[in-house]
Every structure is written in C-alpha cells, then in structure tokens.
Design goal:
single chain, about 400 residues, alpha/beta, eight-stranded mixed sheet, 16 strands
C-alpha cells in the first residue's frame, strides 16, 4: 500500500472501528437515518471537508480534491433492517427489532475513513465525491432519490464495496460483468365469496387458488424464461383464513422475482401478470396484482474492475479472489445505469466458525476487514487511471 494509506490506517484505524460500533449500536431504518447522517457530517467536517445533506434530510454528498481533474464517486449505504440482533456483542443494537445485519454500518465507517484519509493527501490525482446513500434496503432503492438530486453529475467512475460473509477477511472479490441480480416484488390479493369446506363446488375455493399460484407461478415462470438467466421466483408470505372448516374470502401472497439477465428483467412484469391471470382464471376468484419493479443487476465495468484490481493487489497480491454472480439485489445498480463503475465484495468472515449469511440476526463482520475496505476504496483514487470524460468541474449542487 502507499505510505499515505499505511500511515493513516496506523494512526486512525481505531477511530474507524469506533465509528462502526457507534453506528451499529444505533441502527436506523430506511429514510430515517438522521442520526447516522449527522454522524457522517460531523466526522467529515472534522476532517476539514464540506459535506451536504441530501434534499430529503438523510444521506450525504461531499466533494473535494482538485477541481480541474476528473471526479471519482465512492458510495456507501446507511440504513439498517427491521430484524432483531442476536450477536450478543457489547455494542449490539440498542433499538428493539432493528439491526445492521447487512454490513451497512461497516460500509459507512469505511467511507468516512476514506474521506478523512484522502482529505489528508496533498495533490490528489483525481477529484472525489463521497456519496452516503439512504434507503438501500427498500425497493426500488434510495439510490433513485440520490440520482434525482444529481449525485452522478460529472462523475468519471463510481465505486462501492459490499460485505461478503462467504469470503475470508483479507480478501476482496472482483468480477467483471453481472455481479448481482435484478430484484422485483410481487403481491397478489385474492378475493372470493367464501363458503363451507364441505361444498367447495358451490363457491370459489380461494385457498386452492392460492396454492395454484404458490406452486404454479414459480414453475411456469421457470419454463418461460431461459434457465441460463438465473431467474428465480420465491414466495415469502402467505396469509388467509382462520377456521379449518371455512373457505375464506380473502388471501394475500407476497414474494420476489429475481433474474441475472438485464434483458429478461425488462420483460418480467408482463410475463408474471400473464401467468397469474392464466392460473387463476379457471378458479372463479378475483385478484389484484401489485408488481414493484425493483433494481437492475449490478453490471461491473471492465475498466473499473481493473482499477479496483490495481488497488487490491497493492494491499496484497493474494487479496484478490473471484466471486460468483449473486441472486441478491443491490441498488448500486442504478448508479451504473448512469456512470461506469464497479462494486467489489469485501471479505468479512473470520475464517473460523459458521459463515452467517447477510440478513441473519447473528450476522457480524470481522473488523479487520475495515482496514482492507478503506485501503481498497482509497486506492481506486490514488492508483486509478481513468479517462477524463465525462467530467464536470462544478461542485455538487443538489437538485431540490
């Protein structure tokens, strides 16, 4: 690593760890990240920077560095999830039913560290824009609000990290092309006249209709799209009725549809609507279908991956590892619809014990990964070789 990165981490890594623990203990849900936003602003101001809070009151943007050079964007996400924490850590969540079980506390602390580190470097090779984004965990993602405010205007490239509990600490997973999948949400509200379970032929059997959708939609969809696209439909919730001898009048199903193929994603909604209609039509129930188009796949730019690789190899030639495409969704994809860039996967597994997955109540990160994260993102700026266009020397001016 460069002397600047090594020296800064040697003096300040304990601060980065403390920031992560403070944010971890006080998690905030999507669009309610006010205290986390204030913490980011306070830390960046302490480093002599001038952060700007995004128009909706959560999220931060901060520009600095040479105004006459291409600007590199670095993004982190702020929000936690409505999941109770079960780690038993001394700095575990103090907010009942809310926890940082996806690593956003680490992402935020890392990017604060990157900002402070780069602010201490004289004559940066590029201008920098730090983007601390709200509401990554809700569809279609808080990235759209950030984009509406103009956070990608004038950027030459944009980068991000995401914690990966399947990779060992000290490694960074890199992949050109598709890294994540598109993720949409489906909800079906079914209605019927209800009736006695002894005489389903005299009514519309709503529970049977729900069962037809539960098994039929994933199965038919799998036979209507190319299996190489990685398209997966799964139900997460099914609710209807109380009495064992009464056919209910209403029922709800909720689930997700995911695909690793951008072209398949473009056609998923009309296909799902068609299949649902055909499955329900013979059964005499009515329904409303709510389809929330979520996020596209993260498609990593080849040149941006090269820049990340240069940074990772500077940490340790053995730090770079391959990583497969994930069926999970990530709203960083919206930025990549506007600006070329890449997301890397940051190894956070200690190497011993179980590999708890993201969104599990006992998820945690090995805090040694924070130094790797800071060095990786800082290195994309210090070691990067980027084309000058697109490039706008004007500082961030939020669109309200």
């Amino acid at each position: 690593m460069s002397t600047a990165i090594n020296d800064w981490l040697g003096e300040n890594l304990d601060r980065v760890i403390a920031w992560r623990r403070e944010i971890h203990a006080a998690p905030e849900l999507s669009m309610a990240e006010f205290a986390t936003t204030a913490k980011v602003v306070d830390v960046l101001r302490g480093a002599g920077l001038t952060p700007t809070v995004l128009p909706k009151g959560t999220g931060v943007v901060c520009d600095f560095g040479p105004a006459d050079r291409p600007r590199i964007g670095l993004r982190a996400d702020l929000d936690a999830l409505p999941i109770p924490e079960q780690t038993g850590l001394p700095f575990a969540s103090r907010i009942e039913g809310v926890a940082h079980v996806c690593g956003h506390d680490a992402h935020t602390a890392i990017l604060m560290g990157v900002g402070c580190l780069l602010a201490s470097v004289e004559d940066l090779p590029y201008s920098v824009r730090l983007i601390f984004q709200a509401a990554e965990e809700v569809l279609p993602g808080g990235a759209l609000d950030a984009l509406d405010a103009g956070v990608t205007d004038g950027l030459a490239r944009i980068f991000a990290l995401h914690c990966d509990p399947h990779l060992q600490v000290g490694t960074v997973g890199l992949r050109s092309g598709a890294l994540t999948s598109a993720a949409d949400r489906v909800e079906v509200h079914l209605r019927g006249p209800g009736g006695h379970t002894s005489r389903p032929h005299l009514t519309a059997d709503l529970i049977y209709a729900m069962g037809a959708l539960i098994t039929g939609l994933p199965g038919v969809l799998a036979r209507r799209v190319d299996p190489r696209s990685g398209t997966v439909m799964s139900w997460g919730a099914a609710h209807s009725g109380d009495a064992p001898n009464a056919i209910p009048q209403e029922g709800r199903l909720r689930g997700t549809v995911r695909t690793g193929d951008h072209s398949v994603w473009a056609d998923l909604e009309p296909l799902v609507r068609s299949i649902v209609g055909q499955l329900v039509a013979p059964l005499g129930v009515s329904y409303d279908l709510t389809y929330v188009r979520g996020v596209p796949p993260v498609i990593n730019d080849d040149d941006a991956i090269t820049a990340l690789r240069r940074s990772v190899v500077a940490i340790d030639p053995a730090a770079e590892v391959d990583t497969p495409q994930s069926p999970g969704g990530e709203d960083f994809a919206w930025y990549l619809e506007r600006v070329p860039g890449a997301m890397a996967r940051l190894g956070v597994w200690s190497g011993t014990g179980p590999q708890t997955d993201l969104h599990q109540p006992n998820f945690d990160v090995d805090e040694r990964a924070l130094a790797i994260g800071v060095a990786t993102l800082a290195g994309t700026v210090l070691y990067g070789e980027f084309d000058p266009a697109p490039f706008d020397p004007a500082p961030f001016d939020p669109v309200v």
